[in-house]
UniProtKB/TrEMBL annotation:
Region ranges (Disordered): 87-134
Pfam families hit by this protein: Poly_export, SLBB, SLBB_2
Residue span(s) of domain Polysaccharide export protein N-terminal: 203-267
The protein's name: Sugar transporter
Leader sequence residues: 1-28
Amino acid sequence: MRFFRKTRYIYLPIILLLVCLVNLASFAQTTTQSKKNVDDLTEDEVAIFYQKALDSGMSEMQIEKAAKAQGYTAADIAKMREKLSTLSTNSKSGNKVEATENTGNRITVGNLSKPKKEENASSKEDPSSMNNSKVKKSIEEQIFTLEERIFLSQPLNVYNDSLVKIYKELQLRRSRALEKVVFGADLFDTETLNFEPDLKIATPSNYLLGPEDELNIDIFGDVLDNFKVKVSTEGTVKILNLSPIYVNGLSIEAASNRIIGRLRQLYQGLNKPGSGSSAQVTLGNVRSIKVTLTGEVKFPGSYTVSSLATIFNALYLAGGPSANGSFRNIRLIRGNKIIRNLDLYDFLLKADQKDNIHLQDQDIIRISDYETRVELIGEVKRPMIFETLKGETLQDILRFAGGFTNKAYTYSIPVTRNTSRELKLLNITQDKVASFLPQNGDKYIIGGIIERFENRVEIEGAIFRPGMYALEPGVNTVKELIKRAEGAREDAFLNRATITRRQENFEPQIISIDLGKILRGEVADIALQREDVVKVFSVSNLKEKRIVSIFGEVNREGDFEYKEGMKVGDLILEAKGFKDGASYSKLELARRIVTHGLGSVSDEKVDIITFDINGNLEISNKGSQFVLSPFDILSIRKSPDYEKQRYISIQGMVNYPGVYALKNNQKKISDFIELSGGLKAGAFLEGAQLYRNSEIVGINIEEVIAKPNSKDNIYLMAKDSIYVPRIDQTVKLSGALQNPISVTYKPDFKLSDYIAEAGGYATNAIKSHVYVKNPNGISSKTKKFLFFKSYPKVLPGSEIIVDGIPIGAKKGLTTGEVMGITTSLASFSLTLIYLINQIIK
C-alpha cells in the first residue's frame, strides 16, 4: 500500500495547515465568544486544537468553509502554522499528546493478536539500532517513498484516527523489513513455510501420555472387541469390568504393556503364543497442551498447541524472535529447569533438529536478548546481520554468510568497529580470519577484486589466433607471443607493428617495431610487460577499400569488390548480365588519373575509354577482355531504338473500352476514339475527360471528334486515360448560397434560374465571382462588357460555384468609412484649390 497515492496529505506543511483549520473550526464551535486573535492563543489551546483535529471527520472543503465563516484570514493561518510547527518540534523531543484509543493491552493486526507496546518505547535508545542505523536507513529508502518517510517521521499525535491506522501499518511493514536483514528473521515470516505438527504419522515411541489423550484398544483373533478410552484428569483409563489403569507419564509402549496385562483378567492368554487372541493399543486423538513464550519474542503469551508440537511449532505461532531476540539462545524451561538450549543456526545452516524436541504441558520457551551481532556486506553470498556466540571467529561468520562470492577481494578485510567514543577501522589479513574474534556492532565490508590482470598480454590484428595470453615462460617476447598465436597471416604488414604499453603513471605509450626483422632474427627480440597489447596490421586494412562500379542497362547496378585481373566481362557477370535494352556499342569506362603528386599537374582528372562489346561476353572478344583497375566506373547505355510498350486507357460509354498500345508518338485522341469503336448510345461527349498523371486535362473532346484538326486533339502519352461518361441530368450548386443543392437539368434554364432554385445568394456571397465548372473539367465565369453581362452556359452534370467572403472578413466599406473617405477627399480638394489660387495670383 502506498499511502500518498490514496490520500491528499502530501507534505507536512499541508498536513499542519489542514489540522490547524480543523482545530480552529472546532474551537469556534465550542465557544460562544467571537473570533479570538491568533496571537493570543497559548500552547495549551493549540494542544486542544490538536486533540479536536484527531476526532474531526470534516472534508477539506468543509474545513475551508468553516475557517472562512469564523473570519480567519491568510495571515492568521500563517501564524497558526508557526505555532503548530513549534508544537510539533516539542512533540518530537518527548512532549507527546497521546491520541490513540486504548483497547486493552492487545491490538489486532491482520489475523494476528499481539501485545501492544507503549508509544514511548520507541524513544528508548537501543544499542543494536544505534549500531545498525546506517543499515536501517538504507533499507527504509528502499521500501518507502520520500513522502512515506516524511509521514513516518512525524509524531503520531498529529494524525486523526484514519491516519493513525495507516501510520501503524507502515510501522509494521518497516519493522518486518528491518528484521529480514538479520539472518534467520524471515524463517518465521514466510507464508509458504508451515511448522504445524503432522497428526497422521505414527505415534513417536517417546511420546508420554497425559490427561485428554485418547487410546484405541483393538482385540482380534478368536475374540473380537474394541475399546476407545480417554485418559482422565487423574491419569487413568477405565475399561468395563476392570479397575482404573494408571497411564499418566507412561510411553505408548509402557502403557500398552500395562493395559494388555490387565485385559488378561477378561481374556485369558491375550498376546501369548497359542492363545489365538491378540490385542493392540494405539494413540487416537491427542491432547492439547499450553506453552508460554516469553522474552524477546514477537508475540509473547500463552499458546494452546497439540501435544505432538515441538519447539519450532510454538516459535512459528509466536512469530519467532523479535528485533532484539536471539536466534542462538532459545531456552526450553520445564519445572523451573532448563531442559534444552536451541540454536536456530543449526537448523538454518545444517537442517539439524536435534534440539527441536516435543513440548509438554506448561513448558516455557524463553528467547534471550542477543549479545553480539555483526554485519557482513559486499561480496559474500548472504550479506546480512549475523549473531555470534562466545568463541566464534570471523571464519565462522563467513561460514554463516555462505562464504565469499567468486569476485570477492579476500587479501584484506576492513572492519568498522564501535568504541566508547567513536569508530575504529581494522584490517584483517587472510592469516588472521580464523582467529579474529568479532565484537558487537562490527561491520565487515568485503570488497571486489580489481578488474585487471597480473600476467596478461594481448595480441590483435593479422595473426591466426588473436586474443589474450598469459605472460609466462615461453611467452615473454614478441616473437614467442606470435608463435603461441600460431603466426602472422599472409596479409600481415610486417614492416611496422606497434606495442601499446602502460607507463608508471598508467598513461599509454606506443612502441613501434619492425616485425619482419624480428621474425627473421635480423634484430633482437623485444621483451613484453604485463598488459602489453601487440597489434599487427593487415595490408588490406592499410588501403582504401578497392571497388569497381557499374551503372546503366544491367540487372544489378552498384559497387562490387575489385579483384586482381578483373575484366569488363567479369564485372558484367557480377551485375547479373545485361538488360534486354542494353546497347553493346560505345560502352564508357571512367578511370581515375592518380599521380600521388609526383608528376605534373593536369586539368584532366578522369580518363574516358569507350569500346564495343560482344553481347555473349566471349573470352575472345576484345571488349569483354578489357582489364579493369580499382575504382573504374563502367556505364552501359540503352539502345537508341529500344523502347518498352506503352499503353493508354479508354473507359466509359465506348463500344470497346479497355487498354490500347501506343504504336508510336503520333497517335492523337481522335485516333483512339476511332479504335474503341465509337460512342455508345447515351454517351455524353461534352462531359468526356482526359486524365494525365491522375489529373484532369481541360480538353473539349466533343470538339476533337467534330474537328480532328482542332488544337485540343493532342498527342497522347503513356498511361493517359480517357473517360466518356453517361449523360448526367443534374446540376450541382455549391458555395455562398442559401441552400446549396443539386437540381435536375433544364435546357431552358439560365444561370440565374438555377441560383434561384438554391434560394438565391447568401449574405456573404460575391456575386461577381460566380463560375460554372463543366463536366469535362473546364470552368467558365460570368463575363462583363460595359453594362452587359454574359453568363456561362450550364450543361448537364455541371457545377455552379459562388464564392463567398470568409467568416470574420469585412464586406465592402461601412457608412462611417465612406463618410471618412469623403471628408478627406473634400479637404484635399479645398487645399488643392487654395494652392492653385495662390499660384495664379
